[in-house]
Amino acid sequence: MIKPRCLIVDDEADLRELALRSLLPLDIECLTAKNLEEAYEILNQHGDSIDFSLVDIRLPDGNGLDFVKAMQQVSPQTHIAVVTAYDNHLNAQAVQAGASDFLNKPIDLGKLRTLVRNALKAKEEKGLNLFSNRSTKILDRFTGKSASIDAVKEKVKKIARGQAPVYIRGESGSGKEVIARIIHDLSPRHEQDFVPVNCGAIPNDLMESEFFGYKKGAFTGALYDKQGLFQIANKGTLFLDEVAELPLHMQVKLLRAIQENQIRPLGSHQEIPVDVRILSASHRDLSSLVREGKFREDLFYRINVIELCIPPLREHPEDIAELVNKILNTLTSSPRYHFDDGSPLQISEKAMKALLQYDFPGNVRELENILERAATLCEKSLIQIDDLQLPNRHIAEQMENRLDPRLDGIEKATILDALTRVEWNKTHAAKLLGISLSKLRYRMQRLNLKDKP
Question: Among residues 34, 124, 319, 371, which is most buried (max CB within 10 A)?
Fold first, then answer.
């Protein structure tokens, strides 16, 4: 049987020796390189037979990210972890280059072993075609085919393979928990528990016991031992939704649990080791809260190793029609919306046009609520524009026939002028117009504007 092969690229001899000794008991063949020159020699010699690689970004003869890119070209199935500082911009570059995980010096050897075990498990599943079959179905749960949604899905596929904490940023209702579940279900931890918690919904005086559990007799009413969320999520994923709502005193305790991979239940004198991947999310700007002193900077860096931004629905309106169809199919299959003729829920052309023109401040969740309400109000399973009850819908309907042709003409002329000025470079035109590229493409399609003649 061929042993798994690991490559350690670092200029510190002590670290290479420690990593070597740590991984040998796992029956792994370890190769080491002290600089890029040696690393490239090993890559040329062993090609795509390397299963896992740990690469220091700062090497004496160059940037480790260059080697990460080269390894992805030669051996795209290799799981790559990089040694980096708390630099979200650098981490984003590493993910783009092909890295899936991050470790900080001094290297925690226990974390290194866990990374390697999970990487080998994921590769075995890929070899059995388990991963690829699951992957497509799981990613399809996040509906959309626009460029911005495709970019999110591509990044999710990369970061799901690793163990690094991920911070998911996006407006309320944009699908942050959906993405968190997808990351877990695509990860090597998918057979273990995904434990979501809304940090803003736990009373302050109960937070510590909820997160870390307690021992019998720890306080009045503690009649039995109770596991906390970290213990429940052990070997799996803990999703901290609305993490910005954590009070400062709890942020300190959470930081220690994440740093040490250990928790101490209330009333206990011993710490318990835990192995949990942390995913977190917020609709608020954490970096601004850090500057205001409302969120700890050290905790921010711990949970924000990789940042994933979910675009609001108004920035990818070309996905609205697909979302509407998916939601209506779900509602049709529900016994709550059964019509006498047995026909499926449908939406009129005017109602669909109204949805396409709406900004959706509440994002996908608002769209779901609008359609669920409309399904209750509609007759003969056909949703009309009045059933949607959109804000100012009557004004919009009254103005539609009067202004639409004129406004369309003005909008078309403005877009054509911008495209002409930048020689039909859509990216530059979108910047000139102050809109996203996806929104420009949608408007060009709606106005029947073809590519450069």
Answer: 371
Give the pLDDT score at 404.
56
pLDDT (mean) for 366-379: 92
Q: Which amino acid is at 171?
A: E
**Cα 142 to Cα 150: distance, rounded to the nearest angstrom:** 10
Cα dist. 226→197, 212, 276, 312 in Å? 17, 9, 18, 39
From CA 221, how far away is CA 404, in angstroms rounded? 66
Query: 26: helix, coil or strand?
Result: helix
pLDDT beyond 90 at 355: yes
Instruction: Dump pLDDT digits (tens) for 264-313.
Output: 999 998 999 999 999 999 999 999 999 999 999 999 989 998 999 999 99
Cα 175 to Cα 49, 100, 313, 384, 437: the distances in Å are 38, 22, 10, 26, 21
Q: Is the peptide bond before 106 cis (omega within 30 degrees of 0)?
A: yes
Look up residue 205 and give its DSSP letter: G
Model confidence pLDDT, tens digit, residues 123-166:
776 654 445 567 888 999 999 999 999 999 999 988 998 888 99
How many other C-beta atoms can be found within 10 angstroms of the C-beta atom of residue 354?
21
DSSP 245-258: GS-HHHHHHHHHHH
Contact 308, 155 (CB under 8 A): yes
Strands, sheet with 79-83, edge to edge from the N-terminal-most edge strand = 29-33, 5-9, 52-56, 79-83, 101-103
Give the pLDDT band of residue 341 (cuts 50, 70, 90): low
Q: Which single residue is written with the structure tokens 């026909």?
A: 343
Relative to beta strand 79-83, strand 52-56 is: parallel
DSSP code, position 166? E
Residues 6+ apart with CB under 8 A from 30: 5, 6, 7, 8, 19, 20, 23, 24
Q: Which domains does the chain have, with CATH numbers?
A: 5-128 (3.40.50.2300), 141-311 (3.40.50.300), 312-391 (1.10.8.60), 401-453 (1.10.10.60)
User: In sequence order, what are the residues at sequence separation of 6 or more whose Cβ sits closer than 8 angstroms to the Cβ of residue 326?
Assistant: 143
**What digits encode the pLDDT tens for the residues 8-17?**
999 999 889 9
Whole-prediction pTM: 0.77
Please, which pLDDT band fits residue 398 given cuts at 50, 70 and 90? very low
